[in-house]
Amino acid sequence: MVRRAVVLLSGGLDSAVVLALARRDWDEVYALTVRYGQRHVIEVECARAVARDAGVREHRVLDVDLSSWGGSALTGDGEVPKDRATPDATNDVPPTYVPARNTILLALALGWAEVLGAGAIYIGAHTQDAGGYPDTRPEYLEAFERMSALATRAGLEGRGPRVLAPLVRMSKAEVIATGRSLGVDFAKTSSCYDPLPSGAPCGRCDSCRLRAKGFEEAGAADPRSG
């Protein structure tokens, strides 16, 4: 029996590592990217490159425009915070939170996983990024898995997919070390929330700063910097 997994692939550092882990552990891997109206749409092109490198069975890009109701700096409603000294040390919900984003993305992945008969859905959430993001916490992911068992035919038949977040308790440095051990090409990923017109990272948003800190702590150079 072919063992299949669906991976939510944003084009960022974390999702690229999760994809590599899924490729290592499953027979067939399907990647799902959602273009949701994010200002950092360059990550969609990065996702295409990462998926090609990984040799996934299929990569789909869906359009679900979450910017139509706003509520997030990532979809153009307000400014992306810059130059915060400790972006991972707050429990306040940041302006870059996109209302219900991970719930929507996981629901889309769940639908595809059920059609494919996939045994797992992978997401690149981890606690260092959690901060004030309510939909990256382990308890949320566990609750979504419980919900999916009740909400799908596959779940009722006892064959619903697991929701796997293998990075959830790692630091960013550990994520980077894991990716390097699996041969992930980080030059093809983008983490920036507010990239320059050229697509280069701003170097100042929370995500850029967490990425820079992770590479520094991992003792490695970020191929996307400089």
Describe this structure in words.
This protein has helices at residues 13-25, 42-54, 101-116, 127-130, 138-151, 153-156, 172-181, 206-218; strands at 4-8, 28-35, 58-63, 120-122, 162-164. The protein is an alpha/beta fold and 226 residues long. The protein has one domain (4-218): HUPs (Rossmann fold), CATH 3.40.50.620. Strands 3-2-1-4-5 form a 5-stranded parallel beta sheet, sandwiched between helices. Strand 1, helix 1 and strand 2 (28-35) form a beta-alpha-beta unit. The longest helix is centred in the middle third of the chain and has 16 residues, at 101-116. It is globular. The model has no long low-confidence stretch (mean pLDDT 93).
Spell out the key features of this protein:
Rossmann fold; 8 helices; globular; alpha/beta; 226 residues; 5 strands; five-stranded parallel β-sheet
Beta fraction: 5-15%
The H-level CATH homologous superfamily, spelled out, is HUPs
> What would you say the CATH architecture is?
3-Layer(aba) Sandwich
- Overall average pLDDT: 93
Instruction: Provide a count of the helices.
Output: 8
Count up the domains.
1
Overall shape: globular
* Span of the ends, CA to CA: 46 Å
The largest pleated sheet is described as:
5 strands, parallel
Helical proportion, percent range: 25-40%
Strand order of the largest sheet: 3-2-1-4-5
N-to-C series of helices and strands: EHEHEHEHHHEHH
CATH class: Alpha Beta
What's this entry about, in short?
By secondary structure, the chain is an alpha/beta fold.
Strand and helix layout:
Elements: E1 4-8, H1 13-25, E2 28-35, H2 42-54, E3 58-63, H3 101-116, E4 120-122, H4 127-130, H5 138-151, H6 153-156, E5 162-164, H7 172-181, H8 206-218
Parallel strand pairs: 1-2, 1-4, 2-3, 4-5
Helix pairs in contact: 1-2, 1-7, 7-8
